[in-house]
Design a protein that fits this description.
Chain A is α/β, with parallel strands linked by helices. Helices cover 34% and strands 23% of the residues of chain A. In chain A, strand 9 and strand 10 form a beta hairpin. The chains are: A alpha/beta, B alpha/beta.
Chain lengths: 308, 301
């Protein structure tokens, strides 16, 4: 067992189905698809033996759910974009890693469980990512949910638990985060050729975040998560969480080679395909505004105490 | 053709736990029961429904979340397995659903005419959400009537609870116009709970009722306030304070169901029939019905 996990690549990809189902309908969607294809080739050139996905569009309530079905098979249809077509899938999951990840979560105080049910609804973002990044199931995968109530501490610990499990099993891992940048879509149906980022404000924030990614400054983005949530995220959940999890999983520093392969609008939302490669050097002088967290202590019964 | 009408409106929460506890043949997991206060309430409401002459159930569900407009099921039949993404250990339900496409299209057209962004859902691989299935199963376990499912546009997330209320009201009025023009007798269903803060852990035996209680007292107080106002026929006032309640209790009414149904029914000023209230994994769930027929309206609880 190695002390530090071997993470070979990290990717940040959008959750929308357009690059999979309709890349020809809009030049930007096509460029996102090309970027996915480039990432697929780069993954194939590694000797990774696990592809771990954190999906912001797989919500959970009872703790953190981890996909453990060895061969999930279904045909998925998106709730909003059902008219773009169906997404039949058959994936290969790493059940052993899923169980180890769950155990690692529990060891750090998190409530977690694996799910392995025929017909379980794997989310659009995970389906798109797996079909485009790992189309032949060459690498077994695992998917972890995003708990709707969780905040920074829980996400950081969740990422560290993912690392624990990688280390224990000696995995070589490609980490994939499925998330938009700005996530405000147009609320009406649009002609694909009219797609653009919903507002100049969203676009400017997205480009600033992409500068950080391009510089490999993952920890800095993690530290900015609360600001990002306040500025460009529709309040569907309590926080912008993917950068917290990604940094905690890949390593809480800025030592990455970053590359933005594509940045385009997806029905108004900001969709980017980004690669982070662990590197020796990088942008130093990172600033930690909030404490690091090793163990999750829950809500510490604050509600009960308030009734005394 | 006689003018169509709404013959009953139901607030019908959809925790999969109640179907799980019933052990119907369609659901794979087995339970030892649980949540009887809700289930027995549902049983009584289902019996009332059997005595009503109606053509179709129309349900607005918060588990078909759409951000680009309001969508309507647009195919006649959906056969599939529905696995709850949150509670897959409890709900893996094989369904065979008939849809009243004619009425769905009429509602879609009326809503579009009213300026609401709309879409018919025509993909045969689409999986009907579990909110629809749970509410409809508990109200009509025989699935003897066709349904129409309307998605929940998430205007609460994109704008505010107040905008949600206004858009849901406009949708309700449009749906009512379509019902009247159809000549059909329709049951409306708002499929959601009241307060909606969940526990984030689950008992080893989910139906262990010694572990079940409301998430916190403020949620309970809000739920009781709403139930009391419904008893008093203050539906307009309830809709008006929903934004505050949603803010404070994460109420699932944020999906627009109750606001939509009350608007469609013209904000009834007669007492709601209350069939039950119980918490499910911390959330507050009330079953209520509005019977426009004064002769059959009753005080249940």
């Amino acid at each position: 067992m190695s002390e530090e996990p071997e993470i070979v690549l990290g990717f940040y990809v959008p959750p929308h189905p357009h690059p999979l189902l309709a890349p020809e309908q809009n030049e930007g969607w096509g460029r996102l698809r090309e970027a996915f294809d480039t990432c697929r080739q780069r993954i194939e050139e590694t000797d990774a033996d696990l592809l771990l996905i954190y999906s912001t569009v797989w919500p959970s309530i009872v703790g953190h759910q981890i996909q453990a079905h060895p061969k999930p098979v279904f045909t998925h249809v998106d709730d909003d974009f059902h008219f773009l077509g169906s997404m039949p899938y058959e994936f290969r999951m790493d059940s052993e890693y899923a169980e180890k990840f769950k155990d690692s979560c529990e060891a750090r105080g998190l409530h977690a469980r694996t799910v392995a049910y025929d017909g379980f609804p794997i989310d659009t973002g995970s389906v798109v990512a797996l079909k485009l990044l790992n189309p032949d199931n060459r690498i077994p995968a695992c998917i972890v949910s995003s708990n709707v109530y969780s905040n920074r501490a829980e996400q950081i610990v969740l990422g560290k638990a993912a690392r624990d499990a990688m280390s224990e099993l000696g995995k070589k891992v490609v980490v994939v985060v499925v998330a938009s940048l700005s996530n405000r879509m147009f609320t009406e149906h649009i002609d694909p050729s009219d797609d653009r980022i919903h507002s100049a404000k969203d676009d400017e924030w997205n480009r600033k975040i992409l500068e950080f990614f391009d510089d490999g400054r993952l920890e800095d983005i993690s530290q900015l998560s609360r600001d990002i949530h306040g500025q460009i995220r529709v309040s569907k959940v309590v926080a912008y969480k993917p950068a917290w999890w990604m940094a905690a999983t890949m390593g809480q520093h800025n030592n990455y080679d970053g590359e933005v392969l594509a940045y385009e609008a997806l029905h108004g939302a900001g969709g980017a395909v980004i690669q982070l490669t662990p590197a020796k050097g990088g942008v130093g002088d990172k600033e930690f505004d909030e404490d690091d967290v090793e163990y999750y202590h829950g809500d510490r019964s604050v509600l009960d105490k308030g009734m005394l | 053709m006689a003018k169509g009408e709404i013959v009953l409106g139901c607030l019908a929460p959809h925790p999969p736990h109640v179907v799980y506890a019933e052990n119907p043949e369609q659901n794979e997991p087995f339970s030892e029961g649980g949540w009887e206060a809700l289930r027995w309430g549902y049983h009584r409401l289902a019996r009332k429904l059997k005595g009503i002459d109606y053509d179709c159930i129309v349900v607005l569900t918060p588990h078909w979340m759409t951000y680009v407009g309001t969508h309507f099921l647009g195919l006649e039949r959906f056969q599939n397995i529905s696995v709850d993404p949150i509670f897959p250990n409890l709900f893996r339900y094989h369904h065979d659903i008939q849809v009243d496409v004619e009425l769905a299209e009429a509602m879609h057209d009326a809503a579009a005419e009213a300026g609401i962004i709309t879409k018919m859902m025509r993909n045969p691989d689409f999986r009907v959400d579990y909110g629809t299935i749970v509410s409809c199963h508990m109200l009509n376990p025989e699935w003897s009537k066709p349904i129409v499912t309307i998605s929940s546009n998430r205007s609460t997330h994109y704008y505010s609870n107040e905008v949600m209320n206004e858009q849901a009201a406009a949708l309700g009025e449009a749906v009512m116009k379509a019902i009247e023009a159809s000549g059909k007798r329709v049951v409306l269903v708002a499929s959601h709970s009241l307060s909606h803060r969940h526990f984030v852990t689950e008992a080893p035996l989910p139906e262990d009722m010694s572990r079940e209680h409301i998430y916190n007292h403020s949620q309970y107080v809000w739920d009781m306030k709403i139930v009391q106002m419904l008893r008093e026929g203050k539906t307009k006032e309830v809709v008006e304070i929903l934004p505050e309640m949603i803010e404070q209790t994460m109420a699932e009414a944020e999906g627009g169901g109750l606001s939509w149904m009350m608007a469609a029914m013209g904000y009834p000023d007669y007492p709601a029939e209350i069939y039950g209230y119980q918490s499910v994994i911390g959330t507050g769930n009330a079953i209520a019905a509005w019977d426009p027929n004064e002769a059959t309206r009753e005080i249940v609880l």
